Amino acid sequence: xxxxxxxxxxxxxxxxxxxxxxxxxxxxxxxxxxxxxxxxxxxxxxxxxxxxxxxxxxxxxxxxxxxxxxxxxxxxxxxxxxxxxxxxxxxxxxxxxxxxxxxxxxxxxxxxxxxxxxxxxxxxxxxxxxxxxxxxxxxxxxxxxxxxxxxxxxxxxxxxxxxxxxxxxxxxxxxxxxxxxxxxxxxxxxxxxxxxxxxxxxxxxxxxxxxxxxxxxxxxxxxxxxxxxxxxxxxxxxxxxxxxxxxxxx
Length: 250
Hints:
By secondary structure, this protein is mainly alpha-helical. The protein is built from ten helices and two strands, in the order ααββαααααααα.
């Protein structure tokens, strides 16, 4: 596994060298969301019996985690392809499974670091409980893994930065922003509740939030099943692309 460890080290070092941009900046953005929304709504709104500021924090943590996991793997691959340095990763005897694991684990690490930073900073502004920490950990790991693998798909497919930006702006941002971060889906009309149930990020956030407060819009077991299935499907698709060499070797 020396190839895996070396590539993982390279990927972690890549984002850690610019940690102010890759870790600190997303934490600040999440804090601003909390300050603005909680200042306006905290005194007037409770969701499932939870004060709005406290309800908002797990959603912001998971949103920051998955967005940064996606950004890490996708930006690394597109930069390597454009600069031509991807050849130095493809030439050594690194299996496509090790390639996949290194990029996804690095993406998960960045996502978890950002998520933990958001949790620590925002935790000063609202009381949090940890009813079921095992659910928090499971959904954090699976969420980071799914978006890390999905970021690899985007990075492999895109040939230039504006294609990747379109992928992020028109797919990842809507999926995360419209996933129940700022609201309970029970507050939506029936049609939009059904649409929300088609969004896998909703299940990540809802299950993650259950770990804090013990309340959720759907049963956490259902959320876990959907998220686990999404992880296996996205991972299988990514591994198939890597094995074929699509837009990397050919």
